C-alpha cells in the first residue's frame, strides 16, 4: 500500500471515527444523562469523562487548538456536572497542558518570556475579574454567552489564516521599551529567524479582553492568543503558539484560584479530565504526521458549532 | 559544539532558568496529581466528604453544593484536624500545587532578571507573582 493511500485511509478512519464521536457518542451520553443519571455509579461517569477527554485531547492536537477550548462546551453539553465544576476543570486542563509543554518550548527559545510576561500581567488580572463575573452570573446566562463565544471561535477558526513568519515591521515605542524581540532557530530550514513586534498597546488591550473571557468561561485562550500574537503583532507562528502557552499557564493559574475558593474545583471531576486530555494530546502528537489535519480541523469546527448550538439552546432553556 | 548547544547559547539565561524550574515542578505536579487521585478514589485514607455525596450533588451550583455538603474550599481544606491524612485533601493539595507551579517559576525568573540588572522585567515578574499570590490567598473571592 502506497504512503498516499495509507494517509487517505487513516484520514477516512479518523473522519468516520470523528463523525461517530460527534453523532453517536453524544446520543449515548445524553440518553444516560437524561434517563439514568442518578442511577449511574460515579465511577462510570469518571471513566466516561476520562475517555471523552482522551478523545478531545487527540482532536485538539490534530486541529491545532488547546484542549481547554473544546472541553468546556462539549463536556457541559453531555455530562451531568454543573457548569461551575466544568469551568473549574477546564481551566486546570488548559493550565496543565501549558505547564507540561512549556519547558522544551522555553529551552528552544520558542516561548518568549519578554513577549509573554507583559501580556500575562494584564491578562491574569482580567482573568480573575472574568472568573468572578462568570461565577456570579446565573448558569443559563453563562451558558448562553458560552454558546455565543463558541460560535465566534468556530467562525474565527474557519476564517483565520495564520502567517508562518510575518514580515518584519517597524517596532512600536512600547515594544522597544519592553525589549520585545528575538531570534528563533527554524529547524525545517536550519536557519535563525529574527522577529520583532508592533501594535503592542492594542495587543495588551486585547490580551486583557481575552483574559476576561478565558476566566469567565474556564477555557484556555490559545484560540485568541495565537491570532493576536501572529496576525496583529507580527510574531512568527511557532513563537506565537509557544508563548501563548506561557500566557495561558499564568492566566489559567490566576483564574483557577477564584474557582478553587468558590468551591468550583472538585478533584473527582478535574483529575480524570486533566489525565484524559494530556494522554490524548500525546497520542494526537504521534498521529499528527499520519492524519489529514485539515479534515480534522474541519471536524473540530463542526463539533464546536454543535456544542455552541447546544449551549445556546440550553441557555435559552430550550 | 552541536546545533542544540549553539541554540541554547542564544537563549536568555532567564529562559533557561524558567524552563529548568518548570520541568521539575510540572513533573512532580503530574506525579502528585495521579498519586493523590489514586489515594482519593480508592479511599486509601479516610475522606472529609464521601465520594457518593459529591456525585449525588454535582449537578448543583458550586455555592449550593458547598452549602449543602460543607465541602471545603481554598485553604480551609487544611483546617480540620488530621487534614493531611484525608484522601480528598491530598487530591485537593495536588491541584493547588499545580496552580502554584507558575509562581515558583516566576519567583526564580524574578531573581534571575534582578541579577542581570534588568529592573523593568524584575518589576513585571514580581508584580505577576504578587497577582498570583493575592489570587491564591483567597482575598478576592
What's the structural blueprint in terms of helices and strands?
The complex is a heterodimer of chains A (318) and B (141).
Chain A: H1 3-36, H2 42-63, H3 67-78, H4 83-107, H5 113-136, H6 139-159, H7 173-177, E1 181-186, E2 191-196, H8 200-217, H9 222-232, H10 237-261, H11 267-287, H12 293-315
Antiparallel strand pairs in A: 1-2
Helix pairs in contact in A: 1-12, 2-3, 2-11, 2-12, 3-4, 3-12, 4-10, 4-11, 5-8, 5-10, 6-12, 8-9, 8-10, 9-10
Chain B: H1 3-10, H2 13-41, H3 51-57, H4 62-69, H5 87-115, H6 119-137
Summarize the structure.
The complex is a heterodimer of chains A (318) and B (141). With 318 residues, chain A is mainly α.
Describe, in plain words, how this protein is organized in 3D.
The complex is a heterodimer of chains A (318) and B (141). Chain A is mostly helical. Chain A has one domain (3-315). Chain A contains 12 helices and 2 strands; from the N terminus they run αααααααββααααα. Chain A has helices at 3-36, 42-63, 67-78, 83-107, 113-136, 139-159, 173-177, 200-217, 222-232, 237-261, 267-287, 293-315, and strands at residues 181-186, 191-196. In chain A, strand 1 (181-186) and strand 2 (191-196) form a beta hairpin. Chain A is globular and about 60 Å long. With 141 residues, chain B is an all-alpha fold. Chain B has one domain. Helices cover 71% and strands 0% of the residues of chain B. The longest helix of chain B is centred in the N-terminal third of the chain and has 29 residues, at 13-41. Chain B starts with a helix and ends with a helix. The model of chain B has no long low-confidence stretch (mean pLDDT 90).
